[in-house]
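Morning F.,

Quick status update on the modeling queue. The single chain you submitted on Monday has been processed. Sequence for confirmation:
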Amino acid sequence: MADATVETELAEDATAARTTAPKGRPTPKRDARKRGPVAPAPMTAAEARRRRKEMRSKLSREERRADKAARREQMTQRREKMMAGEEAYLLPRDRGPVRRYVRDLVDSRRNVLGLFMPSALGLIFVMLAVPSVQVQRLISPAMLVLVLIMVIDGFILGRRVNRKVDAKFPDNTETGWKLGFYAASRASQLRRMRAPRPQVNRGDKVA
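Structure tokens below.
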């Protein structure tokens, strides 16, 4: 019995010698060797989804339910942090101090662009509710005037935002067209629907 034990230990030591890490790297522990090789990280989102699907197929119903609840909670937390403006959770289009400054400029003022959506919906509702040729003749030019006002307000807002950005961030490399479009897009949304959530109040002074 003792001879068998000694032979087993010698075999394990020989295996350890063969798996000794190169110089400068830590030697793998016996438990790690028993686990076998670790699968590499997924290279694409599709591969990650496939792996998650394979893992879920091995889980019981209760485990799948718990996993789904945990992922839902994680997504809720990530969205809340994104809405709060935490940099690590923002979409690429919203990241950086320049974009944050543009959002603050837009959120600190009352924008005519913000009236576009409710006004357009109101005019469309009137057109559908009152199927009159005379009413439609009045609404069509009204829509054109509304669009023209929105374009002018967006142009003025874009010029104002770019002027302030150039003064505060002289090394900024983003083009004026991109920043102007970003500002106009945010201004055209209802305040409570903006993402990330506004961090300043209307009337606040944004330096």
